[in-house]
Amino acid sequence: MIKVTQLTKRYARTTAVDQISFEVEKGQIVGFLGPNGAGKTTTMRMLTCFLPPTSGTATVAGFDVLDQPLHVKRRIGYLPETPPIYPEMATSEYLEFVGKLKGLSGADVAKRVDYVCGRCAIADVKSKLLGKLSKGYRQRVGLAQAIIHNPDVLILDEPTAGLDPKQIIETRDLIKDLAGEHTIILSTHILPEVEQTCQQVIIIDKGKLVATDSVRNLRARARGAESVLVEVAGRDGRIEPALVQHKLEQVAGVNRVLCKEHVDSRAVFEVESHKGSFVRGDVARAIVQSGWDLNELRPAAMSLEEVFLQLTGNENVGQPETPVEVQA
Amino acid sequence: MRNVWIICRKELGSYFASPVAYILLIMFGLIFGFFFWNALGAFVFESIQSQMSGRSFPMNVNEWIIRPLLSNLTVINLFFIPLITMRLFAEEKRNGTIELLATSPIRDIEVIIGKWLASVVLYGCLLLFTALDFAFLFKYGSPDWKPLLVGYLGVFLLAGSLLALGTFVSSLTKNQIIAGAVTFAICLLLYVFGWVSGYETASWAKVFSYISVATHMESFEKGVLDSKDAIYFLTLIFLGLFFSARSLESLRWRS
Predict the structure, then answer these.
(1) Range of the domain at B134
(2) Closest CA–CA distance from residue B83 to any residue of chain A (Å)
(3) Start and end residues for every CATH 3.40.50.300 domain found in chain A
């Protein structure tokens, strides 16, 4: 549905986007991930024909953004970082205007306005002025205007920025809900968002493509081994972390044990096992048999956050000893 | 054409949804009303004087009231045109709604013409106030309506060209104050350029005087329709809209 080859955007002194290539299949939700200033917005603006690329090509539904912009624009719904609303307009008036602007016929406009109002849960503010709406409603009106002409492709620039947690969840659900009908690209610098909504991730940093893969692969790739978090407590009110660590290291299949936290009689360890060996039962048995209490035992899945920091070259948080190889 | 109309209607909606249009209408009505009252007072005073002194040369309403009023209108335009056009693009750029327009299946030129047309329509509404005043002249006197019509055409052409220039200036900035101030400066300069021909006969003065809008308004104010002047204004409109289109395009390459 979207095909980007060697896309580059250069400004007078800086290169905002540097030879990015990727493809997005029909019906997918793709997360466009990167720190602030990585070039996410610039890339999206090139896809929506707002900015012309310096070099490289991008096609949406088979139409080139530079040569056939009107065709591309007809097939794209775009929600910029700040919803493009006119504060002096009422919600329905605004949606009618956008609908007509996107080329809907007079009869269709009314139908679509009703439909998107229901879909984005903004029917109750239909006759209110946009300038008086809360941030959450504005964002949803922004989404409503993006889908009003039922576009093949939806491009959403930080759709959840500035919303409260409840609104964020609602917006994410809405986006997931829309995925069946539209191909969606959403940009964000919030990782859980990608984990929760997207099937595929495109990570860019400083204008360059760092990784493109499915969420699951990316996480698996970041760490070969599996690890569990174990919280152990001493029965007599104290605990000797070094002793526990030694004991745990003896368990078959365990690669490495790290003491992460030690407070009074409790200590938390991260137990890393070799790939493929299942150590949880043995670890639990070893602890109990040594006379300690096992308070908690859970898998320590590496969060995408850590993967991301590794990939974008920030090693403070990531695990330096498990380097990842990623194609550039 | 449909897109032009969509943009034009939205623009007019914005003018009339905010107090902008109403304040402009009221101020314009007051100012022009005063000029009218003033011209009428002078006319009545003069005619009484000439009757008392026994000289009975006929005083022409067209010459004594309509013509000076039309030239006053040119000056009032200088102040009102920037107020009308300053928000056209500057506000869209400030609000970020320019991104909506630029990513919609609509050509830049359609956006520009739509916006310009809306400003012309708003200006037309302002002119209705002047028509109200002139209606009194027709009620109590019998002025010749043909020169007045030509005069109106001139005022409309003048306004159209200044509005086109204002549209262009507004597309250059996201600051409405800057757009308004620059437009005012340009309008004023275009108006006063003609003054140099009063004392200077060199060729550069002729060029200045030719550029000036005041020069080209003269014949319209007299009620004479001169194609040369009409073409001058039409050219100005074309240039203003053309440069706006270039400006919007360059916005994409620069930003």
Answers:
(1) 2-254
(2) 18
(3) 2-221
List of residues 6+ apart from B202 with CB closer than 8 A: none
What CATH topology corresponds to A225-299? Alpha-Beta Plaits (3.30.70)
Residue matched to tokens 């639990």: A284
> How many domains does one find in chain B?
1
Class of A2-221 in CATH = alpha beta
Written as one letter, the residue type at B184 is F
Contact A80 B253 (CB under 8 A): no
As annotated, the residues of chain A forming the CATH 3.30.70.3190 domain(s) are 225-299
Contact across the interface for B96 and A78, Cβ inside 8 Å:
no
| One-letter amino acid for residue B45 of the chain | F
Pick from A57-71, A302-316, B49-63, B240-254: least confident = A302-316
- Chain B residue with CA closest to A155: the answer is B103
pLDDT tens sequence across B4-24: 999 999 999 999 988 989 999
Summarize pLDDT for B200-213 with one digit per residue, the tens. 888 888 888 889 99
Residue B76 CA to residue B65 CA, distance in Å, equals 16
Residue A99: count other Cβ atoms within 10 Å of its Cβ.
24
Whether ipTM exceeds 0.90: no
